[in-house]
Write a structure and sequence with these properties.
The structure holds 2 protein chains of 2 kinds. Chain A contains 8 helices and 10 strands. By secondary structure, chain A is of the alpha/beta class. The longest helix of chain A is centred in the first third of the chain and has 27 residues. Chain A is globular, with a radius of gyration of 22 Å. By secondary structure, chain B is mainly β. Classes of the chains: A alpha/beta, B mainly beta.
């Protein structure tokens, strides 16, 4: 080897060693667990009831949890949790909270579901929304369960999310929820057994999924009356009827497919049915049922269970078969 | 001038914060002793070949992992110039930033390639696997189709690499893997016809 080459190789080795040392120093100083208070979304409102589809009395704050998954891959998870006015997790005697992992719809950014995450946090749920490559959950179908594991790991730590959720399958449990394509993926995750319940928003299970394998685990399906993304719309009902009880289906009057998301684009709206009512109106009707179902399922709330069984709800048509 | 160019490329690699880690620079055109940088996402790498058969690389999957590898390569079919099939391999370690841990890595690539005076093209299968043994026990087994091409601009070979494939992790469903990279390779020996690199 010529002397010049040897010298250059040594220089490259030295440079590489310096880069490695710098990077490892950075690595040793950081991990993905957030520290300090999160960004306050809603301040606590002691007068809020959290009933009838309205926000609860707790505040809501948000942090981003970073996790190593699949050995060396980074997964970013937006976590919205019940907070005090300073953005700190409300613990006292009330934590750990039930966990909800939300799976984004196809080509819909995770941030467009913040409205639902914030609402649920005010009612005492920790909501984790993992990202997916290209905003397509079927490319990384297990990100939901990986997000739940990361959340449970963070709950064992000393950071912002310490004690936020139960660290095992014990009560309170965890539900997976998904919109549209995210609902299809959510069903897969639920079938794998890490989640106690599944909620579908404008979605249905994939053909061939062995749904009877989770017979007895709660299922909720909410679909907008004006949702024309799936034709015929009967597909939503047919998909729902493939689940075993206990199952609940609700059709929200006047709601279309993209009213589950914020900031729908003109292109999305052009591909959808008409918005029969305002976002505020249809979402409140949807949340009225979703809240009760979550309370009954994850908080084991007998009152909520009775209300779901006996009550009719404005703006919705229920199927309890 | 050469030192400035190398430092500039290093700066791009270090500060671009691309997102596993794969010693990409060990799969570029065979131009003898060389320094190379590959900047892209999710993986980036810098390093080079210090002998005809021994290469070293640092690799990033920013912000989640960083590693180092040592590798080798052989021509299985054909000659180093023209059409041929190359086999390359590398082993190393990887440090994990979140939930800190350490993994050992092994990369194997089988590439069909065509090398002309100022142009190089390759297509092949690559697997850059990792086994985490500190901070948890988990294996990652990707299998990717990779296409790369490079052209010589002066002394520097500039090119692009693109890969698509699946990642297999025991206990999890397969997931998609994508890789896109811009590469630059700088021969360290001005005379690539020197002994050991005669083509």
């Amino acid at each position: 080897m010529p002397g010049r080459v040897r010298l250059s190789a040594r220089a490259a080795s030295l440079l590489g060693a310096m880069c490695l040392a710098g990077a490892l120093a950075t690595t040793s100083c950081n991990d993905g667990e957030p520290r300090g208070p999160g960004a306050v979304i809603y301040a606590p409102q002691s007068t809020a009831s959290g009933t009838d589809g309205t926000d609860g009395p707790l505040g809501a704050a948000r942090v981003t949890l970073h996790a190593n998954v699949r050995v060396d891959q980074a997964l970013d998870i937006e976590v919205t949790y019940p907070s005090n006015a300073g953005g700190e997790l409300v613990r006292a005697s009330r934590a750990p909270w039930p966990a909800v992992v939300f799976v984004q719809g196809g080509l819909v950014s995770a941030s467009r579901y913040r409205w639902i995450a914030s609402h649920l946090a005010t009612r005492g749920y920790v909501v984790a929304v993992p990202t997916h490559i290209a905003d397509l959950a079927f490319f990384e179908t297990d990100n939901a369960v990986l997000a739940l594991r990361a959340l449970q790991h963070a709950a064992t730590g000393t950071g912002t999310l310490a004690g936020c959720v139960a660290t095992s399958a014990a009560h309170p449990g965890a539900a997976v929820m998904g919109h549209s394509l995210g609902g299809v993926v959510a069903v897969r995750e639920w079938l794998a057994g890490s989640f106690d319940a599944v909620a579908l928003l404008a979605s249905f299970p994939a053909e061939g999924d062995p749904l009877h394998g989770r017979a007895g685990a709660p299922v909720l399906s909410l679909v907008g009356q004006n949702d024309t993304r799936k034709s015929p719309a009967q597909a939503y009902v047919d998909g729902f009827l493939r689940f075993d009880p206990p199952r609940l289906f609700a059709r929200i009057d006047g709601m279309n497919h993209y009213q589950w998301t914020d900031d729908a684009t003109a292109e999305e709206l052009a591909s959808d049915g008409a918005q029969g009512r305002s976002n505020a109106a249809v979402r409140r009707d949807a949340l009225r049922i979703l809240d009760l179902w979550l309370d009954a399922t994850l908080k084991n709330d007998a009152t909520a269970r009775e209300a779901l069984a006996a009550t009719s709800f404005p703006g919705t048509t229920l199927v309890r078969r | 001038m050469k030192v400035a160019a190398i430092l500039a490329l290093c700066s791009v690699a270090v500060f671009s914060r691309p997102a596993g880690a794969d010693p990409l620079v060990l799969r570029g055109p065979d131009v003898g002793p060389s320094f190379a940088v590959a900047v892209g996402g999710p993986d980036s790498s810098l390093g080079g070949w210090i002998t005809p058969r021994i290469g070293v690389a640092l690799e990033w999957r920013a912000p989640s992992a960083i590693g180092a590898s040592v590798g080798t390569r052989f021509t299985l079919v054909g000659r180093p110039r023209g059409a041929g099939i190359d086999l390359s391999g590398a082993v190393g370690f990887r440090g994990l930033r979140y939930d800190p841990g350490v993994a050992v890595t092994a990369t194997v690539a089988l590439q069909a390639r065509h090398r002309l005076e100022g142009f190089w093209f390759s297509a092949g299968l690559v697997s850059s696997s990792a086994l985490q043994f500190v901070g948890g026990l988990e294996a990652r087994l990707p299998l990717m189709l990779e296409i790369a091409l490079a052209g010589r601009l002066g002394r520097v070979w500039v090119g692009v690499q693109g890969g698509v494939g699946m990642v297999f992790v025991p206990g999890l469903a397969p997931s998609l893997a994508l890789q896109g990279t811009v590469t630059a390779t700088i021969p360290l020996d001005t005379d690539t016809q020197s002994p050991g690199f005669r083509r």
